[in-house]
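A further point concerns the way the authors explain their paired sequence and structure data. Each protein is reduced to its one-letter sequence and a matching series of backbone shape codes. An entry of this sort, consisting of the sequence and the corresponding backbone structure tokens, reads as follows:
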Amino acid sequence: MYHGAQPYTFLTFTDKSGLIWELTVLGFMLKVGQDVRIQVAGMYWAKALVSTALAAFGGGFLAPIMTGHCPIPLREETFAWIMVFSWYVTHHIPVLSATWCRIAKSGPGWTVLTICFAIFKTQQIVGGIELTTQAIDHEELEPHSRHFWHPAAGPIVCGFLSGCGGAFMPFDKALKPLEAGKNWSVQSSLIATLLYFGGTRWFHIHALDAKLAICIFRIVGDLFPRPRSNAMTHLTGVFYMTTNVRPAASDSKV
């Protein structure tokens, strides 16, 4: 409000006035640091830092590398340094770290961080989709698909990985996030990717409008976990019934 930010530009991560952009990134990184706080407790500091980086940038590395581009945290290294700062504040400053933990767990603190987290995740998903689309369009070594005028598989895969790639890293996790079908990060990344790609390519919705829509979808899902869980249970139930694919054991009664 102080910088005159509008909800549209704030939620689509396009407002560069004042410190809005930096504070949004900071909120995302602080949320990641808080989310992995228990997971990295007791680790050697270097391993804890790398684990936090993987949680923050897993998808930001996977999608660009798959398309032969420089990973996002290396192109915009502000992300990397804010991540290091957030990790340090979360774990290693006497008194302040413990106080910050209480603030992050409080209702207002958790809400603010969750909104920033959703905005940045949306940016990663959209970035992965558009980066891959452009990479395929400019590919000269191999001919383009003879049956598909507009590439879909590559952008969808990279958009999905951009949103939840960190859940699969380090790679010893293998495909565990997919086993039960209950991981919200995986679910939301897939749904958001399909909504954005389908909306912009098939229904010609303006890219920023589609980006805003999936950002709000992610924010609502993150802020209201119980209704989200109920909605996803019914949605996956319909999916299993109509497609006859095999659900996870825990979903067999849905």
Q: What stands out?
A: The first helix runs from residue 7 to 11. The chain has one domain: 7-223. DSSP finds twelve helices and no strands in the chain. Residues 7-223 form one domain.
